[in-house]
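Anyone have tokens for Heat shock protein Hsp20? Sequence:
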Amino acid sequence: MTTLVKSKAFPTLLSVMDDFFNTDVFNKPFVNTEFMPAVNIRDEEGSYELEMSAPGFKKGDFKITSEDGMLTISAETKTEHKEVKKNYTRKEFSCSSFSRSFSLPENIEEDDMKANYDNGLLKVSIKKAVKALPNKKEISID
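Reply: yep, here.
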């Protein structure tokens, strides 16, 4: 026995319009899709180490904040390219941005975070709070 499966042989008008307005003649999107950089987080003995792959940015493009138990990393870069030839001028803009937030654990030193950006890799080091050693006190009996 064969199962019948309904298929959409023809695209809907909405999908055709969406394809038309969101792609150019070279099949590149007009609309810049959201960029979300990949992140690795390691739990080391004395710190948490966050590495974010964010090529194409400069050190000054980043903003890193820590507020109410949240670490937020955001960046925005804008470039402008102008090309003048015989009878035409072409001016192109490029903009890329992102924002990512992470919940911070309670056992950190919020005042002791360090960040470094080199070759497209952002590294954030978050120092863990020193655990208080249990006080052992012997009490004499009267």
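The radius of gyration is 26 Å.
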